[in-house]
Amino acid sequence: MDDTLHIASLVVLARPELFDAVKANLRLLDDLELHHESPAGKLVVVLEAGDERRILQRIEQINAIPGVLNAALIYHELLDGERP
């Protein structure tokens, strides 16, 4: 069993008039946390996944949310060992 944990940080840019709807849709996704936000429509999002493919799928999913202008990967880290 692979105990590698991928942690990724994204900046999500959303249309300000759809910002609340974007945040609500993001909260529906598993293994995703919203951290900081700006009224201009910027969000810092952290993802956790078992592999890189899942991170890339989640970024595509976020980019497909109505009102999202862009989701950009800022940071990616691999943690080896037992998951908490």
UniProtKB/TrEMBL annotation:
<keyword id="KW-0963">Cytoplasm</keyword>
<protein>
    <recommendedName>
        <fullName>Chaperone NapD</fullName>
    </recommendedName>
</protein>
<comment type="function">
    <text>Chaperone for NapA, the catalytic subunit of the periplasmic nitrate reductase. It binds directly and specifically to the twin-arginine signal peptide of NapA, preventing premature interaction with the Tat translocase and premature export.</text>
</comment>
<comment type="similarity">
    <text>Belongs to the NapD family.</text>
</comment>
<comment type="subunit">
    <text>Interacts with the cytoplasmic NapA precursor.</text>
</comment>
<dbReference type="GO" id="GO:0005737">
    <property type="term" value="C:cytoplasm"/>
</dbReference>
<dbReference type="GO" id="GO:0051224">
    <property type="term" value="P:negative regulation of protein transport"/>
</dbReference>
<dbReference type="InterPro" id="IPR005623">
    <property type="entry name" value="Chaperone_NapD_NO3_reduct"/>
</dbReference>
<dbReference type="Pfam" id="PF03927">
    <property type="entry name" value="NapD"/>
</dbReference>
<dbReference type="GO" id="GO:0005048">
    <property type="term" value="F:signal sequence binding"/>
</dbReference>
<keyword id="KW-0143">Chaperone</keyword>
